[in-house]
Amino acid sequence: MTLYGEKSPPADDRPTVQVTAVTWPADDPEPPVAAAPPPARTRSRRLRLLLAAGVTTAVLGGVAGAGAYAYAGDVPRGTTVLGAELGGHSRAEAARKLRAELDRRAAELAAPLPVRVGERTAEIVPAEVGLGVDVDATVAAAAAASAHPVSRLVGSRSVQPVVTVDVDRLHAALRALVGDQGRKMTMPAITFSGTTPKAVHPKPSLALDPQRAADVVRAGWLERQPVAVPLVESHPATTAEEVDRLVDELAKPAVAAPVTLRTDKGSVTVPPKAIAKSLRFTADDAGKLTPQVDVKRLRAALGDDLAAIEVEPRNARMTIAGGKPKVLEAGRAGQQLDAAALGRDLLAVLPKADGREVTATLKPAQPEVTAEKLDGLGIKEKVSSFTTRFTGGLSSPRSQNIVTIAKKVDGTVVLPGETFSLNGHTGERGYRQGYRDAPVILDGKLVPGVGGGTSQFTTTLFNATYYAGLEDVEHKPHSYWFDRYPAVIESTIFWPDLDFKFRNNTPHGVLIDTSYTASTITVSIWSTKIYDSVKTEYSPRRNITKPRTIHLTPGPSCIPANGIDGFTQDAYRVIRKDGKVVKREKFTWRYDAEPRYICGPKPS
């Protein structure tokens, strides 16, 4: 018969031994009456075969035993992590042993880690930045350390633990070390002073790279040595040479001559001054500078010149009548230039010296707010109201400025999710818009300036939205405190640099209603009431400073002042709903001491 060696174990990584097949002599079915003794050669061959079978069995047994030893547990034998022997154990047992080792080293691992950024050093507390060992991930890495059979049988290996860190918290902790060693990236820019382009060349930043810093700290934590975190230089995507090329090839030729804008309803000349106001060079976060024509700015720069060819759509308007909001005027469709096409086509002709003409298309323009939309906005009740007082009656230039801006804002509807910008809504506040000269703060002192008094309306509007619980987006208190305003909760405004913005963070529309008397200005917010109450809690004033006396040259531009103390104070907006405080916001401001200005020479 034919005999084959033992079958190997089921397919896996264990070694197998194959035995060569042998053939035995055929057995006699009927043995002879007198059997002769077997020849010596036959006995010798049988002995050798039996011996080979015994050796094979021994080899197979040895290999099987070695395989069982090498493959005992999930983690290969000889594997250590942080000095703890994890080899030959299941994952669960290896995790238990590693946790025991981490517990033994707990005090060492929790100790502050010395960190150096540039020339400055400090210590960070590992727990505060999320430094730790991910035990399960480390055991998984140890189990995968080697799958080769020989490697599992002999040798040793040390596996690095998987270290975790909270990148954001670490970055915040390290930022304080950077200080003036770092520098912000100077973004490339091209601006216009009148019709003269001005180039701003980019400069690289020197700052922390959050991910790189995390990698360095992760690698150095367990070494218990000071960790040096590098400051990384990052360059803007647009180079200085590219900025200069944009100035020469686009910015300068753009304002060298007017552009003719042709439509089916007539033509409009776009002068260089309007081009300069609408041609924008915007840098993204990477510092890539991209030119574009801001059609909204272009429309504002052209002003009444577009009225001959465009019909501006008009939103539906609301007013307060008999103590209730009602629709005053339905919306009206208009016809305006196709903004996207105009911006693209105008940008294409600006580099040219000749052929500076653009054919524009007029498109129907629907109002953003219709009467039907107003009805569904939930504008039904007064949510808040705020009043400030002024002197001089309605005949004074300052009072007239307050009334002018109040009328411009009256009846404005802010849709849910929309951000209202006071500068964006009123535009430039100059003589053409009906504003007059009145005292404004400039370079720390009161001087005559167009639009003086509009800050009082801004403060009144800010407080009305503040007590309505609406989201404060942008405001800036005055340098000095005036007792006609609530401390901290007040705002100045100055075109175009200082703005006031709030966001309608409710699911309802917001109507701004303004009214005035000979001595007061009032702003009311109408919507659907969400909160039970909105109140202000003040901290005591601190860091009090006294005014100094300054003598000025007498004249029309000199406005005397009595002087006001400087101080720092906190104001907390406390918002309650369903009897509970749902929001508590802190506002802090530091007021300078306003000098006592005297229009006259110092006494001798």
UniProtKB/TrEMBL annotation:
Q: Where is the YoaR-like putative peptidoglycan binding domain?
A: 248-358
Q: Which positions, given as ranges, span the membrane?
A: 49-72
Q: What is this protein called?
A: Vancomycin resistance protein YoaR, contains peptidoglycan-binding and VanW domains
- Record lineage: Bacteria, Bacillati, Actinomycetota, Actinomycetes, Micromonosporales
Give the Pfam families listed for this entry.
PG_binding_4 (PF12229), VanW (PF04294)
Q: Which UniProt keywords apply?
A: Membrane, Transmembrane, Transmembrane helix
